Amino acid sequence: MERFVTLPxxxxxxxxxxxxxxxxxxxxxxxxxxEALTAGIQAGMTLLDTAEMYGSGRAEELxxxxxxxxxxxxxxxxxxxxxxxxxxxxxxxxxxxxxxxMGVDYLDLYLLHWRGGIPLEETVACMEQLKKEGKIRRWGVxxxxxxxxxxLWSVPGGKNCAVNQxxxxxxxxxxxxDLLPWMRAHHVPLMAYCPLAQGxxxxxxxxxxxxLQTIAAAHQASISQVLLAFAxxxxxxxxxxxxxxxxxxxxxxxxxxxxxxxxxxxxxxREFPAPTRKVYLDIx
Length: 284
Prior knowledge:
The protein is an alpha/beta fold. The protein contains 10 helices and 10 strands. Strand 7, helix 5 and strand 8 form a beta-alpha-beta unit. Helix 1 runs parallel beside helix 9.
Protein backbone atom coordinates (compact mmCIF):
# COMPACT_ATOMS: atom_id res chain seq x y z
CA MET A 1 0.00 0.00 0.00
CA GLU A 2 1.32 3.39 -0.98
CA ARG A 3 -1.52 5.48 0.42
CA PHE A 4 -1.91 5.92 4.15
CA VAL A 5 -4.09 7.98 6.46
CA THR A 6 -2.69 9.43 9.68
CA LEU A 7 -4.93 9.03 12.72
CA PRO A 8 -5.06 11.70 15.48
CA UNK A 9 -2.45 9.77 17.53
CA UNK A 10 -0.10 9.85 14.49
CA UNK A 11 -0.61 6.15 13.68
CA UNK A 12 -0.57 5.51 9.95
CA UNK A 13 -3.12 3.08 8.49
CA UNK A 14 -3.77 1.97 4.90
CA UNK A 15 -6.18 4.20 3.00
CA UNK A 16 -7.70 1.03 1.58
CA UNK A 17 -8.93 -1.59 4.02
CA UNK A 18 -11.39 -4.47 3.89
CA UNK A 19 -14.97 -4.59 5.06
CA UNK A 20 -16.71 -7.78 6.21
CA UNK A 21 -20.42 -6.95 6.23
CA UNK A 22 -22.35 -10.06 5.03
CA UNK A 23 -19.21 -12.21 5.13
CA UNK A 24 -18.94 -15.34 7.25
CA UNK A 25 -22.64 -16.09 7.04
CA UNK A 26 -22.56 -19.14 4.73
CA UNK A 27 -20.39 -22.18 5.43
CA UNK A 28 -20.07 -23.00 1.75
CA UNK A 29 -18.33 -19.66 1.10
CA UNK A 30 -16.01 -19.53 4.12
CA UNK A 31 -12.88 -20.79 2.36
CA UNK A 32 -13.48 -18.47 -0.60
CA UNK A 33 -13.96 -15.52 1.76
CA UNK A 34 -10.85 -16.43 3.77
CA GLU A 35 -8.88 -16.55 0.51
CA ALA A 36 -10.21 -13.10 -0.44
CA LEU A 37 -9.31 -11.55 2.92
CA THR A 38 -5.87 -13.19 2.89
CA ALA A 39 -5.16 -11.89 -0.61
CA GLY A 40 -6.13 -8.41 0.53
CA ILE A 41 -3.84 -8.57 3.55
CA GLN A 42 -0.95 -9.75 1.37
CA ALA A 43 -1.65 -6.83 -0.98
CA GLY A 44 -1.36 -4.37 1.89
CA MET A 45 -5.03 -4.04 2.85
CA THR A 46 -4.20 -4.90 6.44
CA LEU A 47 -7.02 -2.87 8.00
CA LEU A 48 -9.98 -5.20 8.59
CA ASP A 49 -13.35 -3.76 9.63
CA THR A 50 -16.10 -5.80 11.27
CA ALA A 51 -18.78 -5.60 13.98
CA GLU A 52 -20.51 -7.76 16.54
CA MET A 53 -23.67 -7.19 14.47
CA TYR A 54 -22.30 -8.70 11.26
CA GLY A 55 -23.76 -12.18 11.07
CA SER A 56 -24.16 -12.11 14.87
CA GLY A 57 -20.39 -12.39 15.27
CA ARG A 58 -19.72 -14.72 12.34
CA ALA A 59 -17.77 -12.07 10.43
CA GLU A 60 -15.50 -11.66 13.45
CA GLU A 61 -15.06 -15.44 13.56
CA LEU A 62 -14.12 -15.40 9.87
CA UNK A 63 -11.45 -12.82 10.57
CA UNK A 64 -10.17 -14.94 13.44
CA UNK A 65 -9.81 -17.97 11.19
CA UNK A 66 -8.19 -15.88 8.46
CA UNK A 67 -5.53 -14.20 10.60
CA UNK A 68 -4.64 -17.23 12.75
CA UNK A 69 -0.87 -17.54 12.62
CA UNK A 70 -0.31 -14.11 11.12
CA UNK A 71 1.78 -11.38 12.72
CA UNK A 72 -0.81 -9.52 14.82
CA UNK A 73 1.33 -6.37 14.93
CA UNK A 74 1.00 -5.98 11.16
CA UNK A 75 -2.81 -5.92 11.27
CA UNK A 76 -5.21 -3.12 12.18
CA UNK A 77 -8.44 -4.65 13.48
CA UNK A 78 -11.64 -2.64 13.83
CA UNK A 79 -14.90 -3.77 15.39
CA UNK A 80 -18.11 -2.09 16.49
CA UNK A 81 -20.39 -2.37 19.49
CA UNK A 82 -24.18 -2.31 19.27
CA UNK A 83 -25.71 0.88 20.72
CA UNK A 84 -27.63 -1.13 23.32
CA UNK A 85 -24.36 -2.73 24.46
CA UNK A 86 -22.43 0.54 24.61
CA UNK A 87 -22.81 1.18 28.36
CA UNK A 88 -21.24 -0.07 31.58
CA UNK A 89 -23.58 -3.07 31.75
CA UNK A 90 -22.50 -4.72 28.51
CA UNK A 91 -19.66 -2.99 26.66
CA UNK A 92 -16.83 -4.81 28.45
CA UNK A 93 -18.42 -8.19 27.74
CA UNK A 94 -19.12 -7.20 24.14
CA UNK A 95 -15.53 -6.12 23.58
CA UNK A 96 -14.14 -9.32 25.09
CA UNK A 97 -16.51 -11.43 23.00
CA UNK A 98 -15.40 -9.67 19.81
CA UNK A 99 -11.74 -10.23 20.69
CA UNK A 100 -12.36 -13.87 21.51
CA UNK A 101 -14.12 -14.46 18.19
CA MET A 102 -11.11 -12.94 16.40
CA GLY A 103 -8.59 -14.73 18.60
CA VAL A 104 -6.78 -11.54 19.65
CA ASP A 105 -6.10 -9.78 22.95
CA TYR A 106 -6.70 -6.20 21.80
CA LEU A 107 -8.51 -4.21 19.12
CA ASP A 108 -6.81 -1.39 17.25
CA LEU A 109 -10.06 0.54 16.97
CA TYR A 110 -13.49 0.07 18.60
CA LEU A 111 -16.50 1.98 17.30
CA LEU A 112 -19.96 2.83 18.58
CA HIS A 113 -21.99 1.47 15.67
CA TRP A 114 -24.67 4.18 15.77
CA ARG A 115 -26.43 6.45 18.27
CA GLY A 116 -28.62 4.72 20.82
CA GLY A 117 -30.29 5.38 24.15
CA ILE A 118 -27.17 5.16 26.32
CA PRO A 119 -25.73 8.63 27.07
CA LEU A 120 -22.60 9.47 25.08
CA GLU A 121 -20.84 10.45 28.29
CA GLU A 122 -21.22 6.89 29.60
CA THR A 123 -20.07 5.30 26.35
CA VAL A 124 -17.02 7.56 26.13
CA ALA A 125 -16.10 6.79 29.76
CA CYS A 126 -16.32 3.07 29.00
CA MET A 127 -14.22 3.43 25.85
CA GLU A 128 -11.57 5.29 27.83
CA GLN A 129 -11.63 2.52 30.43
CA LEU A 130 -11.12 -0.09 27.72
CA LYS A 131 -8.11 1.91 26.54
CA LYS A 132 -6.64 2.01 30.05
CA GLU A 133 -7.10 -1.75 30.36
CA GLY A 134 -5.27 -2.29 27.06
CA LYS A 135 -8.27 -3.95 25.42
CA ILE A 136 -8.46 -1.30 22.71
CA ARG A 137 -5.84 1.10 21.35
CA ARG A 138 -8.33 3.81 20.34
CA TRP A 139 -12.04 4.32 19.80
CA GLY A 140 -14.37 6.11 17.42
CA VAL A 141 -17.94 6.36 16.20
CA UNK A 142 -20.02 5.35 13.21
CA UNK A 143 -23.07 6.90 11.55
CA UNK A 144 -22.63 10.22 13.42
CA UNK A 145 -23.93 13.35 11.70
CA UNK A 146 -22.65 16.86 12.39
CA UNK A 147 -24.89 17.49 15.41
CA UNK A 148 -23.85 14.12 16.88
CA UNK A 149 -20.18 15.01 16.51
CA UNK A 150 -20.73 18.40 18.12
CA UNK A 151 -22.45 16.71 21.05
CA LEU A 152 -19.62 14.19 21.30
CA TRP A 153 -17.09 17.03 21.43
CA SER A 154 -18.93 18.51 24.44
CA VAL A 155 -18.61 15.27 26.45
CA PRO A 156 -15.57 14.70 28.71
CA GLY A 157 -13.05 12.71 26.68
CA GLY A 158 -15.17 12.98 23.54
CA LYS A 159 -12.38 14.70 21.63
CA ASN A 160 -10.39 11.45 21.81
CA CYS A 161 -12.59 10.08 19.02
CA ALA A 162 -10.24 8.68 16.36
CA VAL A 163 -12.59 8.33 13.35
CA ASN A 164 -16.18 8.62 12.20
CA GLN A 165 -17.30 5.83 9.89
CA UNK A 166 -20.17 6.74 7.56
CA UNK A 167 -21.54 5.75 4.18
CA UNK A 168 -19.75 7.60 1.38
CA UNK A 169 -19.40 6.99 -2.32
CA UNK A 170 -19.38 9.01 -5.53
CA UNK A 171 -23.19 8.98 -5.76
CA UNK A 172 -23.76 9.69 -2.05
CA UNK A 173 -21.82 12.85 -1.22
CA UNK A 174 -24.16 14.43 1.33
CA UNK A 175 -21.50 14.54 4.03
CA UNK A 176 -19.46 16.98 1.93
CA UNK A 177 -21.81 19.87 2.78
CA ASP A 178 -21.22 20.13 6.54
CA LEU A 179 -20.14 16.87 8.20
CA LEU A 180 -16.92 16.38 6.26
CA PRO A 181 -15.80 20.03 6.66
CA TRP A 182 -16.50 19.73 10.40
CA MET A 183 -14.42 16.56 10.60
CA ARG A 184 -11.57 18.13 8.66
CA ALA A 185 -11.60 21.19 10.93
CA HIS A 186 -11.45 18.94 14.01
CA HIS A 187 -8.90 16.49 12.52
CA VAL A 188 -11.22 13.47 12.54
CA PRO A 189 -10.48 11.07 9.65
CA LEU A 190 -13.35 9.59 7.67
CA MET A 191 -13.89 5.85 7.26
CA ALA A 192 -16.05 5.36 4.20
CA TYR A 193 -18.24 2.28 4.19
CA CYS A 194 -19.92 1.08 0.98
CA PRO A 195 -17.42 3.10 -1.13
CA LEU A 196 -18.46 0.95 -4.11
CA ALA A 197 -22.17 1.58 -3.38
CA GLN A 198 -22.44 -2.18 -2.74
CA GLY A 199 -21.30 -2.99 -6.25
CA UNK A 200 -23.61 -0.32 -7.61
CA UNK A 201 -26.71 -1.70 -5.90
CA UNK A 202 -27.15 1.54 -3.94
CA UNK A 203 -27.20 3.62 -7.13
CA UNK A 204 -28.81 2.17 -10.22
CA UNK A 205 -26.62 2.47 -13.30
CA UNK A 206 -23.50 3.57 -11.42
CA UNK A 207 -21.24 1.01 -13.09
CA UNK A 208 -22.74 1.95 -16.49
CA UNK A 209 -21.78 5.63 -16.11
CA UNK A 210 -20.11 6.87 -19.31
CA UNK A 211 -18.04 9.34 -17.28
CA LEU A 212 -16.67 6.62 -15.00
CA GLN A 213 -16.14 4.26 -17.93
CA THR A 214 -14.13 6.91 -19.79
CA ILE A 215 -11.95 7.62 -16.75
CA ALA A 216 -11.42 3.91 -16.12
CA ALA A 217 -10.39 3.35 -19.75
CA ALA A 218 -7.92 6.24 -19.60
CA HIS A 219 -6.15 4.59 -16.65
CA GLN A 220 -6.62 1.00 -17.84
CA ALA A 221 -8.49 0.55 -14.57
CA SER A 222 -11.83 -0.86 -13.44
CA ILE A 223 -14.87 1.16 -12.41
CA SER A 224 -14.33 -0.09 -8.84
CA GLN A 225 -10.79 1.28 -8.84
CA VAL A 226 -12.06 4.67 -10.01
CA LEU A 227 -14.70 4.72 -7.25
CA LEU A 228 -12.12 3.86 -4.59
CA ALA A 229 -9.61 6.39 -5.92
CA PHE A 230 -12.35 9.02 -5.69
CA ALA A 231 -13.21 8.04 -2.11
CA UNK A 232 -9.63 8.33 -0.82
CA UNK A 233 -8.53 11.27 -2.98
CA UNK A 234 -8.10 13.73 -0.09
CA UNK A 235 -5.59 11.67 1.90
CA UNK A 236 -7.78 11.78 5.00
CA UNK A 237 -10.25 9.03 4.12
CA UNK A 238 -10.05 5.28 4.70
CA UNK A 239 -12.24 3.25 2.35
CA UNK A 240 -13.33 -0.25 3.38
CA UNK A 241 -14.74 -2.08 0.36
CA UNK A 242 -16.11 -5.55 0.95
CA UNK A 243 -15.27 -8.45 -1.33
CA UNK A 244 -15.91 -12.16 -1.07
CA UNK A 245 -13.71 -13.09 -4.04
CA UNK A 246 -9.93 -12.94 -4.35
CA UNK A 247 -9.99 -11.41 -7.84
CA UNK A 248 -12.27 -8.59 -6.71
CA UNK A 249 -10.15 -7.94 -3.63
CA UNK A 250 -6.97 -7.69 -5.71
CA UNK A 251 -8.77 -5.38 -8.13
CA UNK A 252 -9.75 -3.15 -5.19
CA UNK A 253 -6.16 -3.14 -3.96
CA UNK A 254 -5.05 -1.85 -7.37
CA UNK A 255 -6.88 1.43 -6.70
CA UNK A 256 -4.00 2.36 -4.42
CA UNK A 257 -1.97 3.40 -7.46
CA UNK A 258 -4.72 5.35 -9.24
CA UNK A 259 -4.57 9.15 -9.00
CA UNK A 260 -7.45 11.01 -10.64
CA UNK A 261 -6.65 14.22 -12.51
CA UNK A 262 -8.32 17.56 -11.81
CA UNK A 263 -10.16 17.27 -15.13
CA UNK A 264 -11.43 13.80 -14.20
CA UNK A 265 -12.59 15.00 -10.79
CA UNK A 266 -14.38 17.89 -12.47
CA UNK A 267 -16.12 15.45 -14.83
CA UNK A 268 -17.22 13.37 -11.84
CA UNK A 269 -18.52 16.52 -10.15
CA ARG A 270 -20.66 17.30 -13.18
CA GLU A 271 -22.32 13.88 -13.21
CA PHE A 272 -22.37 13.31 -9.45
CA PRO A 273 -22.44 16.82 -7.95
CA ALA A 274 -21.62 17.60 -4.33
CA PRO A 275 -24.62 18.89 -2.34
CA THR A 276 -25.47 22.58 -2.15
CA ARG A 277 -27.59 22.21 0.99
CA LYS A 278 -27.76 20.07 4.12
CA VAL A 279 -28.37 16.40 3.35
CA TYR A 280 -29.06 14.13 6.27
CA LEU A 281 -26.81 11.16 6.76
CA ASP A 282 -27.19 8.32 4.30
CA ILE A 283 -27.36 5.08 6.30
CA UNK A 284 -27.76 1.53 5.01
